[in-house]
Task: structure prediction
Amino acid sequence: MKKQIFHDAAAGVLIGLILSIIFSLIYAPSTYAPLSSDSLIGQVMFQHQVHGALVLLYCTLIWAAIGILFNFGNRLFRRDWSMLRATLTHFSHASRLYPTSNSGRLVPLPLDLLSPAHSGVCDCLPYHLDYPL
Result:
């Protein structure tokens, strides 16, 4: 059991590290950033000037927890349960073991991002409807 948990954590760390390298190359090609500075945790760590090694350690622990949680969900769905029971069990355990960063609150999408005044990047789409409903 301990060997399986270690394997799941190592797989989560490996996948998280590979993805962080890819996204760091895309969004910050000059430096490696395992955590986005636009996220809440990234902003807090930037404000408190946390050392880069501690940021990477934090990310490693989160990636390990995600790997363990994903394999736990995989084992739930391999059981001989109905899909509904497996889904509800996975949701209840996952919401308790790995809470969301914003405590489960929904963040509304600012609709002004979709307005034509915000950005003129896509002028090919019509922003008004002249069609009768």
